[in-house]
Design brief:
Blueprint: E1 2-8, E2 14-21, H1 30-43, E3 53-55, H2 59-71, E4 85-87, H3 89-104, H4 109-117, H5 122-134, H6 151-163, H7 165-174, H8 184-207, H9 215-232, H10 238-268, H11 273-285, H12 289-296
Parallel strand pairs: 3-4
Antiparallel strand pairs: 1-2
Helix pairs in contact: 1-2, 3-8, 3-10, 6-8, 8-9, 9-10, 9-11, 10-11, 11-12
């Protein structure tokens, strides 16, 4: 277990330091994890100075947080500890995208196979680049095969492969062994998937900054995702629509437990105050927006 503290120092600079790096033997039960974390907090005398604790999203960590609240003096914490558990936003985005990609994985398989084929050896790569030059297509970006455990690598693979759609089509005539050629409808499907991944990739980069505070940025970016998925869900492509539905279900699961702390952080940003909250809540909640804004106040 790694326990990292993020705080503002006396000069108002964002700082972070590792408080403890400790081996915890199996089984990693909630009781054992809770005891280790609480001991660390008390050893550093910060158990009454916490704003939030951020963990990955899993049932064990949820149980850990319930037990931690039983051991801390909640009256010393923000809103009596109701905001203590902050779910990791980047991990939430990761779960949302993975659920969506699971639905469409077969739809992009031929593009993945094509990329794998044309990156297999240096000689094959050279043939690909020669064909691109013949078509006067700049070969500034190299084909990249994705990794099954990293969704952003799938985004990168599709984003680059789409640039060379004409090259793949031309190579079909030059290499009879190249049989996994994507159809025009599969390329269109890939562009639809890539459009969705592009937004998630952009927002993940914004909220993953380590050199500046990002909590105040979470709220508007996460709201953009909610609005985008709600728009995408009207797609005429049934598989894309199923992908969007899966992502929306996962989003809604975590939205209810994260939007309060993100909304508060946004209000405390002097650039936004209540205006940004009111703007997005009106779009998200419509008739219930006033009650939601009032609850954050």
């Amino acid at each position: 277990m790694v326990v990292t503290a993020h705080y503002i120092d006396g000069a108002w600079n964002l700082q972070s330091c590792i408080l403890r790096f400790i081996y915890i033997p199996a089984p990693h039960s909630s009781d054992r994890l809770c005891a280790t974390l609480v001991k660390c907090l008390m050893d550093w005398n910060i158990d009454t100075k916490l704003s939030t604790i951020t963990l990955d999203n899993c049932s064990t960590n949820d149980a850990v947080m319930d037990k931690i609240k039983e051991k801390l003096h909640l009256s010393t914490l923000l809103r009596d500890g109701s905001l203590l558990h902050m779910h990791c936003c980047t991990h939430i985005l990761n779960l949302i995208v993975k659920d969506g990609l699971e639905v469409v994985k077969d739809g992009i398989e031929k593009i993945r196979d094509s990329v794998a084929y044309w990156t297999a050896t240096p000689k094959i790569k050279e043939k690909f680049e020669e064909t691109a030059k013949q078509l006067r297509i700049s070969c500034t970006k190299t084909l990249s095969l994705d990794c099954s455990t990293r969704w952003n690598s799938t985004y990168k693979m599709l984003d680059i492969a789409i640039l060379y759609e004409d090259v793949f089509s031309r190579l079909r005539l030059r290499d009879t062994r190249y049989t996994c050629i994507p159809t025009s409808s599969q390329w269109k499907f890939a562009r639809d998937v890539c459009e969705r991944l592009k937004l998630f990739n952009k927002i993940t980069e914004i909220i993953s900054g380590t050199k500046y505070p990002t909590a105040n940025m979470f709220f508007p970016e996460i709201c953009k995702i909610k609005l985008a998925i709600s728009y995408w869900i009207n797609s005429s492509n049934l598989l894309i629509k199923e992908m969007d539905n899966k992502m929306l279900q996962k989003f809604d699961k975590y939205w209810s437990v994260t939007h309060d702390i993100m909304g508060i952080a946004s209000v405390l940003d002097p650039r936004y105050k209540m205006e940004l909250l009111e703007y997005y809540y009106e779009k998200l909640y419509e008739q219930d927006s006033f009650e939601q804004v009032k609850r954050i106040q």
